Amino acid sequence: MDNAATLAFFQNFYTEASLYVVAEPAGTVEAVAAAVSPAKAPPAPLPPAAPAVAPVAAAAVPAPPPVAPTPAPVAVPPAAPAPVATAPTVAPVVQPPAVSAPTAAPAATPAAAPTPATPAERAAVTLTLGQLPAAPAAPPSQPGRVQPTPTQSPVAHVPFSTLGSNAGGLVVLVRVSPDQFRKLPRNVFLNNLLKALRLIVEDVVLVNVEHPSYPVALCSLRRHLTARQFLAFGKNLLDVAVYTTQPYEPVLLYGDTAFLGAGEIEMLEYDAGRKKKLWQAVQRMFGV
Q1: Dihedral of the CA atoms 116, 119, 124, 128 (nearest 10)?
Q2: What helix, strand, coil percent values describe the chain, rounded to 5?
Q3: Between the chain's N and C termini, which has fewer beta carbons within 10 Å?
């Protein structure tokens, strides 16, 4: 079979013309097809065959895409439950009630407050006088000088200042400057002496004689104070005791008033010998 016959055969085949073809060996047909294939490009009818097959393939391919939309709703909404983790934060907030515990502690502190002694207990401390000798008779007075009495005195005009309540009838006589007198209630020596008598500064009255040399009059003191016992720290402080007393020797004046004279407080603070003599005299005066 020549080339012209072969070409005519294939042209008739693609034009869907039914022809009778004599069977030939497979090798011969393949060899003829390989030889004719380069000449198959020029014919124009070949391209129209491709569009006929393309629509079929295109129709089959679009079928899978409808599966793609299903992954879209993937677990994007489930991310919302994450904020639920805020719930545990509410539990720690309940802890503040533990603060109520310390409130019980302050309640115990005020309980120990009522330790100071009541005024009734301090008022119950009364000083009892010991067996004291009566003051000796005053020596003959010098011309022009008048011996004072509990009701009359030439020095009744001498001024004095006081500190304290005089609850126990004890009077402490001094002659110091106004500044020193204001500090006297804090004097350690005086407070220790009163403590030995079971007293405090508030239980006695402090009297400062404001004249540099004249004593204060007993009649003047009794107008304002319950003056029954006197502790005089200095010289020439009480008119009725000027001529009838000696230092560190307690005596009874007019049978109802006890008097004990001693040195100045500033001198006693640093003199152990005088302190001892004063304490012994105080014991005799008050029977302690």
Answers
A1: 90
A2: 45, 10, 45
A3: N
Q: What is the pTM of this model?
A: 0.56
Query: How many residues belong to the chain?
Result: 288
pLDDT digits (tens, 9 = 90+) for 78-101: 444 444 444 444 444 444 444 444
Inter-residue contact 261 to 245 (CB < 8 Å): yes
**What 8-state DSSP symbol labels residue 245?**
-
- Order of strands across the sheet that contains 251-253: 160-164, 205-209, 170-174, 229-233, 257-262, 251-253
- Going from N- to C-terminal start, the domains of the chain cover 3-60, 160-286
- Give the homologous superfamily in CATH for domain 160-286: Uracil-DNA glycosylase-like domain (3.40.470.10)
Place of tokens 């629509």: 55
The radius of gyration computed from the CA coordinates of the chain, to the nearest angstrom, equals: 67
Instruction: Chunk the chain into consecutive blocks of 10 residues (it has 288) and report each block's average pLDDT, rounded to whole numbers.
Output: 69 58 53 48 49 42 48 46 45 44 41 46 65 79 69 89 84 96 95 92 94 93 88 94 91 88 93 94 88
Which of 275, 199, 263 is closest to 237 using CA atoms? 263
The C-alpha atoms of residue 137 and residue 25 are separated, in whole angstroms, by 185
Cβ atoms 286, 280 nearer than 8 A: no
Q: How many Cα atoms occupy the beta-carbon half-sphere of 80 within 13 Å?
A: 3
What are the two backbone dihedrals, phi and then psi, of residue 248, each rounded to the nearest 5 degrees? 65, 25
The one-letter amino acid at 75: A
Residue 24's H or E segment, with its range, is none
The answer to whether 217 and 239 have CB atoms below 8 angstroms apart is: yes
In the chain, count H helices and then E strands.
11, 6
pLDDT recorded at residue 98: 45
Question: What ranges make up the beta strands (E) of the chain?
Answer: 160-164, 170-174, 205-209, 229-233, 251-253, 257-262
